[in-house]
Amino acid sequence: MERMLNRLVSSRAPACHAVCAALAAFIALCGVAPGAIAADAPKLVVLGTFFQNDNAGLEPTTDAERARLVRTGEDFAKQLAESGRFRIVSLGPEQRTRIDAGQTPGDCGGCELAYGREAGADIVAWIKVQKVSNLILNMNVYMADVASGRMLLVKSVDLRGNTDESWSRSLAYLVKNLVLKANLKPGSS
After folding, report:
1. How far apart are CA 187 and CA 189, in angstroms?
2. Sequence-distant (≥ 6) Cβ neighbours of residue 144 within 8 angstroms
3. What are the angstrom distances between the C-alpha of 180 and each of 23, 38, 148, 153, 176?
4. How many C-beta atoms lie closer than 10 Å to residue 16's C-beta?
5. Which of 82, 123, 155, 176 has the most CB within a 10 Å radius?
6. What is the model's pLDDT at position 124?
7. How many of the other CB atoms lie within 10 Å of CB of 74?
8. Residues 155, 174: contact at Cβ < 8 Å?
9. pLDDT means per 10 residues in the chain (189 residues)?
């Protein structure tokens, strides 16, 4: 296959021009080359992944779950950055300390918007994972317009099983099928 492509490219055959034109049209349709960031991409800050353990008395939060929370937030930011639709901005250590010590974003009377403004973001996002049991969990993604306070996206998936794989597959599904397919334009009504 590789040899055939090299011959096609080196021969400067009309077929090569057709393939290149098709590729250029595909990239134009997508609006941005994979991995490239669109010039008008909004700045987005991910506040993290938060855990609601409904049965903490019977099943305390484990180190594995705490590790999944960190990894899920990091993977969420990475997947959004790789989409080219967002410019990811980081939180400072002082903000991270305040978030970790305070109420959960979404349940704090607008603190998430203040964190977004401090980070210079257009959009603020966070994930909340609710553990009903080791078999039943929900992963919820929230995204809000920092300027208006309007929720841009609230989406949820159910997980079956409390494993690294169930968490990562759920996040991938959320990003690919719900977040990236949504029209997330801050400042629009």
Report:
1. 7
2. 112, 113, 116, 123, 124, 125, 150, 151, 152
3. 21, 14, 21, 11, 6
4. 15
5. 123
6. 98
7. 13
8. yes
9. 42 43 37 61 97 94 97 97 96 93 92 96 98 96 97 96 97 97 80
